[in-house]
Amino acid sequence: MPAYQYTAKSKEGKTLTGILEGASETEVAESLHTRDLIVVSVEPAKRKSIKSAASRKVKTDDLVVFTRQLATMIDAGVPLVSSLSILAEQAESEGLKNVVSAVRQDIEAGMNFCDALGKHPAVFSGLFINMARAGETSGMLDEVLDRLAAYLEKSAALSRKIRSSLAYPAVIIVMAAVITSILLLKVVPTFKGIFEMLGGKLPLPTQILILFSDLLRKNFIFVLAGFAGVVFLFRRYIATERGRYNFDRYKLKAPVLGVFFLKVSVAKFSRTFSTLVKSGVAVLSALDIVSKTAGNKVIEEAVMGCLKSVRDGEPISLPLSKSGIFPPMVCRMISVGEQTGQLEKMLSKIADFYDEQVDTMASTLTSMIEPLVIAFLGVVIGGIVISLFLPIFKITELVAR
């Protein structure tokens, strides 16, 4: 259905603008009339104006601040439209300012809060929208938004832990690759010229090093193109459903890191599920949202299987246990939560426990990987340096004789 940009005036004389969908301009004008608005103009909306609000990236930290401030203002009795106007004015992010302004205009045009949020899926996730809908329906929008802000903060903190634990090893590996490339492409050829001037037979390690350096220099463009091609094909592969599933399954089974990724997934699953259930979202809807926000196709498949089983009358813990993905402790605690009617409390405890586990394991992995990477770097660069100096040592011994 086409969208139309309108300008109208309320009974109080306030000018309202926004975008409405309708079969024609006449239908949109009639819709505005039914809301006691005086139509000033209605014209087809430009495609750019529809997407401009969501075209800019909104950071999680900005979304957390917006959600927290909106909850505070609603709790203080400030009307929703006025709250959105204030937050749009003071937003530092241009993307968030545009989105909040668009949401306010849609609400003024008669749309409810959740539907207005749903027009910006790039900013507001399904979890955000469903929690807002549950809060709006129950009359506890301020509490739900505050809970949602806390969830976003904890999720962002978990993501930062993962990135920080993997950043240092990645930097070391990149530096090792750069240093090794410089040695092979620049330093080794210089020593090769010196060795040719001196003459004599070179030690085997030096011969191998020079051969490898020559091959790399002559085929450097092809090596780069091959590497880029492998990366491109890999990204295309994991962009497919099957490829992503196989990659996520390998991540969970990888030595050492597999346990880490599993704990991250369990922590995210438990935190999201707990927040949704506590906010009044139905269990089936909550499981559907959790599966889509799992971030791992294997976990998503397990949760979707759980959703089908729960719809057939089974308890949540049983299909999760049968999946073989979730640890027995998690399934047992969920079972106890179901039996005692405190599911959200148990899920929250599981999330807190696994958050601590992820934090501890991230620190442990960083401390383990650091010496291993440094040792590898020492072996590679040390091996190159020793291979270069072996002929010099041999010449020195001959001169001494």
Tell me about the largest β-sheet. 3 strands, antiparallel
Mean pLDDT: 81
Poorly predicted regions: 47-55
Q: Specify the overall morphology.
A: elongated
Q: Which strand order does the major sheet show? A: 2-1-3
User: What percent of the residues sit in helical stretches (DSSP H or I)?
Assistant: over 70%
What is the CATH C level class of the largest domain, in words? Mainly Alpha
Strand percent estimate: 5-15%
Ends: how far apart? 94 Å
- Number of strand elements: 3
CATH topology of the largest domain: Receptor-associated Protein
The total number of structural domains is: 3
Describe this structure in words.
The chain has 401 residues and is mainly alpha-helical. The protein has three domains: 3-51, Ubiquitin-like (UB roll) (Roll), CATH 3.10.20; 60-152, Receptor-associated Protein; 166-401, Receptor-associated Protein, CATH 1.20.81.30. The chain has 17 helices and three strands. It has helices at residues 25-33, 47-51, 60-75, 80-90, 94-108, 113-118, 126-138, 141-198, 204-218, 220-238, 241-253, 257-278, 283-292, 297-311, 317-323, 328-340, 343-400; strands at residues 3-9, 15-21, 38-44. A three-stranded antiparallel β-sheet has the order 2-1-3. Helix 8 crosses helix 9. The termini are far apart. Mean pLDDT is 81; it is low at 47-55.
